[in-house]
Amino acid sequence: MGLHGVKAVFFDLDNTLIDTAAAGRRAIEEVISALQSKHRYGEGEARAVCDKVQAKLLRECHDPAKMCITDLRISHWEEAIQETIGGEANRDLAAECYYLWKTTRLQHLRLGEETRAMLTELRKGLRLLLLTNGERQTQREKIEACACQPYFDAIVVGGEQKEEKPAPSIFHYCCDLLGVQPAECVMVGDSLDTDIQGGLNAGLKATVWLNKAMTPPGDTSPVPHYIISSVLDLPAVLQKMEHSINAKLDTDHMASGDEAH
Q1: At 261, is the pLDDT very low, low, confident or very high (cuts 50, 70, 90)?
Q2: 183, 201 in Cβ contact below 8 A?
Q3: pLDDT for 123
Q4: Interhelix angle for 69-85 vs 43-58, to 10°?
Q5: CA–CA separation, 172 vs 174, rounded Å?
Q6: For residue 242, what pLDDT is reported?
């Protein structure tokens, strides 16, 4: 698919190409089950521990210079257990919960067959880049788990760069990697705050918001150029872009023809 004006597409990873949220829910249920069957926790206690961990993950501030991500996340579980059950800290149980959660989540991260087919087809005419925010080790493990490397010309992890999305610098770095200009690139992702705002900040040709629930954006949210409910709808959006570009080229050509007379 050779598109006039579009040379590259940047894809977000989590909850765009892979369903990280669903994999995370499966992982949490696995930990709840283990706490109940193996450690005699009541269901309420087990769920309370997991709820606290999820809240800590959402608020997580990681400084790799001070602590590795593994130690930090084991500490989330350790604190959550102590806050729920009381008593002395239980680092061993915290580590067991963390590794069960992490392993289960990775096992359920899949790049769907239809998504793989779409990426293969798009790559025949476009350069594709994976652009994901997050801590280096965590994101690289996800990339390995879903085996998405062969579908991309380049992979950029925010945690390995000076700035993450929505900073323009990481988008411009991606453009330099592929040898393209921002005005030749499209960003696809599920986050208005990072993917869409970032694409707008960097001056990309277009932003495509993946809004699976089709919920209306807030009044102060950045406005994407296009909205899709499935990543599989992207080729149709790119076709629409090509048609509008061709129409503009025809109009410009006619205008210059009129001027010649």
Answers
A1: very low
A2: no
A3: 98
A4: 140
A5: 5
A6: 86
Using 50, 70 and 90 to split pLDDT, how confident is the model at 1?
Answer: very low
Residue count of the chain, please give it.
Answer: 261
DSSP state of 3: B
Tokens of 202: 């960097």
Q: Which residue has the tokens 């991500």?
A: 69
Q: Residue 77 in contact with residue 86, Cβ under 8 Å?
A: no
Q: What is the pLDDT of residues 103-126, one digit of tens each?
A: 999 999 999 999 999 999 999 999
How far is the C-alpha of 174 from the C-alpha of 203, rounded, in Å?
13
Dist CA 190 CA 227 (whole Å): 10
Beta strands in the chain (DSSP E): 8-11, 127-132, 154-157, 185-189, 206-210, 226-228
What pTM was computed for the model?
Answer: 0.91
